Amino acid sequence: MEDMDGQAAxxxxxxxxxxxxxxxxVVPLLTRIRVIEGEMLIRQGNRPDCLFVVLKGHFMIHRNxxxxxxVNKKGxxxxxxxxxxxxxxxxxxxxxxxxxxxxxxAGTLRDQIAADPRLEETLLKRIRENISERHxxxxxxxxx
Amino acid sequence: MTGLEAIQHYNGFAxxxxxxxxxxxxxxxxxxxxxxxxxVLLAWENRAAWADAMRRWKRGNGRGTTEKELPDIEAxxxxxxxxxxxxxxxxxxxxxxxxxxxxxxxxxxRVHFTVSRLIECHLIVPDEDGYFRWNHEVYNRFSxxxxx
Amino acid sequence: MEMFLDFFANTGFALVDYRxxxxxxxxxxxxxxxxxxxxxxxxxxxxxFGILLGNIPVFKGLGLSIYESNSVLNYLYFGVTSGVYxxxxxxxxxxMTDFSTLLARPVLMxxxxxxxxxxxxxxxxxLALGFAPNEAASIGIIGGADGPTAIFLTAKLAPELIGPxxxxxxxxxxxVPVIQPPIMKLLTTRKERLIRMEEPRLVFKRxxxxxxxxAVLLCCFIAPAALPLLGLLFFGNLLKEAIVTxxxxxxxxxxxxxxxTILLGVTVGxxxxxxxxxxxxxxGIFVLxxxxxxxxxxxxxxxxxxxxxxxxxxxxxxxxxxxxxxxPDSARVVHMVGQAxxxxxxxxMHAMAPNVSGVIGSAVGAGxxxxxxx
Lengths: 144, 148, 374
Fold this sequence. Notes:
The structure holds three protein chains of three kinds. Chain A is of the alpha+beta class. Helix content of chain A is 29%, strand content 26%. Chain A has helices at 6-10, 20-26, 106-115, 117-136, and strands at residues 30-35, 40-42, 50-56, 59-62, 68-71, 77-78, 92-95, 99-105. In chain A, helix 3 packs across helix 4 (117-136). Chain B has seven helices and two strands, in the order H-H-H-H-H-H-E-E-H. Chain C contains 21 helices and no strands. Classes of the chains: A alpha+beta, B mainly alpha, C mainly alpha. Chains A and B meet through strand 5 and strand 7 of A and helix 5 and helix 6 of B.
C-alpha cells in the first residue's frame, strides 16, 4: 500500500473489527489513490472491480436518474456492494474535490469472503453502520 | 500606377500607420480595462469592508485588516451568486448531477469544487428524496440581503 | 433532330469551356479537402459545392446564374453583397467563444493586435501592385484570417472581388496548419518554444458578463465602422454568459450560425464563376493573401518576443502566431508546435487568448479600412 502504513488503514472504522489474520489478507488488496475534482470513480452499470474508502475529500454518489447524496467523512465506503456481489455498480461516484481514497480489490475480496464467511459478517456490520450514518445525516436515497 | 508611387499617391503609408495605431489603441485600452475589471468588482463586492478599513485607517487603528479575508469572501460569494441564478432559472428541488452539468455547459469555473463549497456552507442542502434545495435563508444572510 | 440539336445547344455540355472545368476541379478539390482531410469541412464543403453550382454553364437570360438579378441564387447572394451574413456568423461565434483566458491575462490581447499588422502591410503591397485602394483594403483583410470579416469588408468596398477574396481567405484558413509552422519554427528558438505558461487566474462569471458590454462600447466608440461585426459578436457573447438567455445563445451558436454558414458557403462558392474568377486579379489576390497570412503570423511572433523583453514572467512567443484570428485553428497549431518540442506543454488554452483578440482586432481593422475608403 503506497504512502500509508497498514496501522493507519487498520484504524479506519470499516476495518476496525477485523481479526489480525483477516487483516493480513486484506492489506495487500489496498491501494492509496489520489483523486481529482470531477473525476468519476465509479460508473453505474459497470462491472464492480473495486470499492473505495474515503480518506480525504468530498464525493457525490449519484444515480443516473438524478438522485444523489454526498459524503465527505473519512472512512465512508463507496461502492460497497461490489464486496459482496459481482453484479454491476448501482450508482455513480464522482469526486467533488481533490482527495485521497483507499481502493480495495473487490474481486479478490469477494474470493476471500467466500473462503471465510466471518469476514463477510464483520465487514457487512461496519458497512451497514456506515450507510445508516449517511442516511441519519439527511442524505437521500442513492446510497449504494 | 504601381510601386511606391502608387502607395504615396493613395496616401497608403499614412492609412496603414493610422490603421494599425487605432487597432493597437483599441486593444490596449480594452486590455487595460479588463486587467482592472476584477479588482473593481472585488472592491465593489466588498465596499462595506473597504469603507470600514478606510475608516479605521483614517482613525489610525491599523490598516489592511480586510486584506486576508477578501479572497475567501470573494471566492465563495461570486460562485454562490452564479449558482443562485442558475437554480432560480432551473427550479427547485434540483438534482445535483444535473445542476453540475448545467453549470459546466454554461462555462462556470471549477464546478465540482464550487458545489462542494456551497454544500459545506449549507447554501445547497439535501432534501429527503435525494434531491437538493437552495438555502435561501443562509443565502440572504450571506449576501447581506433582507429577507422578503 | 433539330429539336434535339437545339436542346443540346442549351445544355452544359455545349456551353462549357475549359475555365468552367478548371473551376469544377477546384470545387471537387475543396470538397475532397473538407471531407477526406478534414480541413475546415464546415466551410470547404459548402464552398466547394457552391463552386460546382456556379460553374455549371447555363443559358444566360433564364434567371439561373447567381449574377442574374431574378435568380434564386441571386436572392441568397444578397445576404453576402449586403453584408448581412457575416455579422450573423459573428453572433454565433460570440455565443460560442469563451473569453476567460483573455480576461485572465489581458496582456495577451496585444498579440492579437500585433498580428493585424499583416492586414495593413498587405494593403500597402496590394497598392504597390496596382490595385485600387478599395480593392487593396479588401485584399489586406485576408491577413486577418477571418472569413466573415473579409467577406463583409469586400462586400462594402469591392463586391466584384468577393469570390476570389472569400475563397482565398477560407483556403488559407484551412491551410493554417501548413502555412504557420515553418514560420513559427523559423522565428523562434527551441528554448523559446519550451517556455511554459503560468496557470491563468480564475475568472468570475460577472467579469465575463461585463466584458462584452465594455468591449462593444469601447471598440465601437473608437472604430464605429466595426459596429456590425463587433456589435453582434459581443451580443452573442453576452447571450452566452448571461445564463438567463441560454436559449437564445443556443439558437445563435447552432441554428443561426449553421444556417448562415450554409447560405454563405454555397453562395460565395457559386459566385466564383469562371469568367469572373479566373482573372489576373485573382492570382494577385491569392499571392497577396498568402503573403498577408505569413506577415500576420510573423508580426504576432515577433511582437511576443518583443513583449518578453519587458515582462517579468516570459510568455511563449509561439502564442503570437495565434493572433491570426483563425479560431481555433491557429491556437491549435500553436499547441501542436509547442507539444512537438515538449509533450507536457499545454498551450492551447493560453493560445485562445490572442486568438479571440485577433477576431476583435481584425474586425476593428476592417472597420478602420472601411471608414478610410468612404
